[in-house]
Amino acid sequence: MDIKKAVIPVAGKGTRFLPATKQLPKEMLPIINTPMIHYVVEEAVNSGIEQLIFVTSSGKEAIENYFDRNIELEDFLKANNKEDYYQQIKKIGEMVEVISVRQKEQLGLGHAIACAEHIIGDEPFAVILGDDIIRAKEPATKQLIEISKKNNFSSVIGVMEVDPDKTDKYGIVAGKYIDDSKKTLKMTDMVEKPKPQDAPTNLATPGRYILSPSIFKYLKEIPRGAGGEFQLTDAIKYQCQKEDVFAHIFEGDRFDTGSIDGYLDATVEFALRDSATKDMMIKIIKDKMARYEISL
Ligand code: UTP
Question: 256 in ligand 1 pocket by Cβ < 6 Å?
Fold first, then answer.
């Protein structure tokens, strides 16, 4: 057994990015010149995933097209001696096998994952949120796959430490560390957006999961949760009460690019980390600070 399939839910409405998302999938918004979904798919491929299942909705066709070949564009780039662009575009179209399933009504992340059951079948799989980028030496999903493999292919929830004052913005896990390295916990509970004084830990769940297939059973049992949606966190809560579920603190920098502040953060950070754009970004920031008389 191995973990070779990943579900990437991209069916959400992306209301925080309206009006852009009236016509454009949020996941196609670029960080500089690369759509955020590209980074997510790259993480999956570099984690050994061979089959991707996009959970989509009406208007999200641009995502499927992005990962398909575009022969007309390739021919144009070749004919105009733009070899670097040609290779780049061809490579994206050959990155991975993609399957799409529709989520006909946007009833939440839990509901979106349930839409992929008939393709996943009876094997453990990864879930990677399509609007959440993690930059890491070893891909975050790969780190979680390793922990799942060591623990009989149990579910493993990726977690990160957050400021204890901000627990009310996240799903927070409870559990006991399994060894002295204090990186992996056996989960006992999951609490949605607890107030700091009620939070069992400061370990939050951004958007990386390895799930054992029994999750589909729990997804059918959960009632509608916060916001009238079927929440994946509720199904994980049920699962950890009945079987071994682990939480693992992954290494890496996470950007919540589905929110405006996370999107801005990623844009500045990625520009500063790339030698092609670093000096441009520094100059822009310096000039703006001078123009608006901002001092730190
Ligand atoms: P978000 O919570 O960011 O929701 O979903 P959203 O609808 O995309 O954005 P806002 O809150 O309206 O601005 C996290 C991920 O789960 C997917 C989204 O596409 C996003 O990648 N999702 C969410 C679904 O696929 N289906 C849903 O019903 C909800």
Answer: no
Given a cut of 50, the residues of the chain with pLDDT beneath it are none
Q: Atom 9, ligand 1: which residue's CA is nearest?
A: 14
Give the C-alpha separation, 177 to 174, whole Å: 10
C-beta of 135 in contact with ligand 1 (< 6 A): no
Residue 127 bridge partners (DSSP): 7, 209
* Residue 10: C-alpha distances to residues 22, 109, 112, 207 (Å): 15, 10, 9, 12
Helices 278-291, 260-273: axis angle to 10 degrees equals 120
User: What is the model's pLDDT at position 225?
Assistant: 83
Measure 189 CA to ligand 1 centroid, in angstroms: 23
- Whole-number pLDDT of residue 130: 93
Instruction: Write the pLDDT tens digit of every residue in 118-174.
Output: 999 999 999 999 999 999 999 999 999 999 999 999 999 999 999 999 999 999 999
109 lines ligand 1 (CB under 6 A): yes
How many other CB atoms are found less than 10 A from the CB of residue 289? 12
Pocket of ligand 1 contains residue 131 by CB under 6 Å: yes
Taking only the tens place, the pLDDT of each residue in 253-262 is: 999 999 999 9
36 C-beta closer than 6 A to ligand 1 = no
Q: Tell me which of 3.40.50.150, 3.40.50.1110, 3.90.550.10, 3.40.50.300 is the CATH number of domain 5-252.
A: 3.90.550.10
Parts of the chain belonging to CATH 3.90.550.10: 5-252
Residue 89, pLDDT score: 95
294 CA to centre of ligand 1 in angstroms? 35
